[in-house]
Design goal:
The protein is an all-alpha fold. It is built from 6 helices and no strands.
């Protein structure tokens, strides 16, 4: 796939995630993905505001959980997933 096609797919994916989960607060996502998620943004910031600024690792994790359908569950009960994704314990 050419670079332009890849970049368009990435924009489409971000838009899809932000459309469905954009109201999630960064504080909630940090409970799932760790303190470094959306570094430099306040806890009160919304995913829709920060998604364009996420590092590749955070975006890949977020995208993977969106694709497998677990992101909504993770956002609803973030304490259950606290640091388990980074420790290699819980995948889905």
């Amino acid at each position: 796939m050419n670079r332009r096609g890849f970049e368009q797919r990435a924009r489409d994916k971000k838009s899809e995630i932000a459309g469905k989960h954009g109201s999630a607060e960064v504080r909630t996502l940090r409970k799932i993905y760790g303190k470094a998620f959306a570094e430099g943004f306040s806890d009160e910031a919304r995913l829709s505001d920060v998604i364009e600024h996420l590092d590749a690792k955070s975006l890949a994790e977020l995208s993977g959980h969106h694709d497998d359908g677990s992101l909504e569950r993770r956002i609803a009960k973030p304490a259950r997933f606290l640091n388990l994704t980074h420790a290699g314990g819980l995948v889905g």
